[in-house]
Write a structure and sequence with these properties.
By secondary structure, this protein is of the alpha/beta class. The protein contains 17 helices and 19 strands. 35% of the residues lie in helices and 20% in strands. The N and C termini lie far apart (72 Å).
């Protein structure tokens, strides 16, 4: 009989959980948006634009907010980034546009660009209008494999060009990690699906849900049926801890648990441990750590094998986690799992340091942490189920290799999003990949005689 393991539901009341999972950054009021927009210097060669992967004309959209032209502001944003509403919620603006803001460098307080972007896009989505129209039919058909940010961005741009698009999505809902992999408090009120509805309103995009590559269809068949294919399959596998007993009860993949949490109809019913250890140092690690704390976990520790400067999570995310009661333990690498009656009861760590070359080494010291639940958030990999599908596709550094136009080693097959090495694995980068791939696909298809 398990005596020291404490995993159960109902740690907090529904009222407390509702409060804990409210919008983490409530939208700006009209008055605050006006004041904030007037803080912008409207730089001519704005560094914030250079820092935005989708190259939104940030000074221009902010100026339009300051003059009351919210429709024009939203158009500036959405023509460059069709998922500007979600990106305003989940982008690490502190390391992108706001990190480059001249007010940030000069006064240590950047313009709140992300919140202004949300203000304009939210206002426009509420109107139910659209700026976009499907182009005259080209009689070309494109298959998009994956309905996440890259796939939806590509599909929307292709529809503007007049191509017919079929999106194959392995899950029940579209939007990828925006729907299944981001903390619930970042995107409340079903925003991910409301944004999907806005994107699909252009028409010319057919959705085939619950269809998986290699199981329900093959890449070769799509090449025969369609004029072009865009792969936006994300990263479906997770890195292994490499420890004995890593599949025991109480050891979970963080992305899988975040997905379960996002799809839950009653968060109070979710079982949660009293003592949580999260292994990792990126946004996913932060998201699962904070959410377990908000669900009522008593002690949540995020364990990372290096120091704060090496963490993928931004300083703002780290600060947010700590302000929400998450303890961060640096310089520890998982060594072994301990169990009690088949359930994880703790984890032993090797202490680490960096040598003169910046490589991690073990110091010889060890640390032990008790845990009812361990979450691994140590990165993701391409699905290994795709081996037969990708036998002719070049893979580099564990991801699909593409050229400057995002075309793979197979002619008329493009790829984008987390499955390629185009930069940080961010929603905003995936949107840009999809947009640029659509432009390249259109150029190729309209030049085919």
């Amino acid at each position: 009989m398990v005596t020291n393991i404490d995993v159960r539901s109902g740690r907090l009341s529904k009222e407390d959980i509702t409060k804990n999972f409210a919008d983490v950054h409530p939208p700006l009021s009209p008055g605050n948006a006006l004041v904030e927009s007037n803080r912008c210097y409207f730089c001519h060669d704005a560094p914030c634009v250079e820092a935005c992967p989708t190259a939104i004309d940030i000074p221009n959209f902010i100026r339009k907010i300051s003059t009351g032209n919210l429709k024009g502001s939203a158009k500036d944003i959405l023509t460059q980034n069709i998922m500007g509403g979600m990106c305003a919620r989940v982008c690490p603006t502190e390391s992108l546009c706001e990190g480059a803001c001249v007010r940030h460098t000069g006064e240590n307080q950047p313009v709140r660009i992300g919140e202004l972007q949300r203000y304009a896009t939210d206002w426009f989505l509420e109107t139910g209008e659209t700026f976009f129209e499907r182009g005259k039919s080209t009689n070309k058909r494109v298959a998009v494999i994956g309905g996440g940010p890259a796939g939806l961005s590509c599909a929307h741009k292709l529809a503007i060009f007049g191509h017919e698009v079929v999106v194959f999505e392995s899950r029940e809902k579209l939007s990828g990690l925006n729907e299944y992999g981001i903390a619930a408090y970042k995107t409340v009120d079903n925003f991910a699906q409301r944004e999907v509805e806005f994107i699909l309103n252009i028409g010319g995009i057919e959705i085939r849900n619950n269809k998986s590559l290699g199981k329900d269809f093959q890449l070769k068949n799509l090449q025969d049926e369609f004029d072009a294919v865009f792969l936006s399959i994300g990263l479906g596998n997770v890195n292994s801890l490499g420890l004995k007993g890593a599949s025991m009860n109480g050891v979970y993949d963080a992305v899988e648990k975040i997905s379960e949490l996002r799809q839950s109809k009653n968060l109070a019913d979710l079982p949660i441990g009293r003592r949580i250890v999260v292994i990792g140092g990126g946004s996913t690690a932060i998201d699962i750590a904070v959410q377990t704390k908000k669900l009522g976990a008593e002690d949540v520790t995020l364990a990372y094998r290096r120091g704060p400067k090496q963490m993928k999570a931004t300083w703002k995310e780290i600060e947010f986690a700590q302000n929400n009661g998450v303890r961060i333990k640096y310089w520890v690498s998982p060594k072994s799992l301990h169990s009690e009656n088949g359930h994880v009861s703790g984890i032993e760590f090797d202490c680490t340091e960096l040598d003169s070359d910046g490589k991690t080494f073990f110091t010889g010291d060890v640390r032990f942490m008790e845990a009812d639940v361990v979450y691994k958030a140590i990165g993701q990999l391409l699905e290994d189920d795709f081996d037969s599908e990708f036998e002719n596709i070049k893979i580099e550094k564990g991801k699909i290799a593409v050229n400057s136009k995002l075309e793979t080693s197979i002619p008329l097959v493009w790829a984008g999003g987390d499955c390629i090495n185009s930069g940080e694995d961010l929603t905003v980068q995936a949107v840009e990949d999809g947009k640029q791939a659509a432009i390249a696909i259109n150029e190729k298809l309209t030049n085919i005689k």
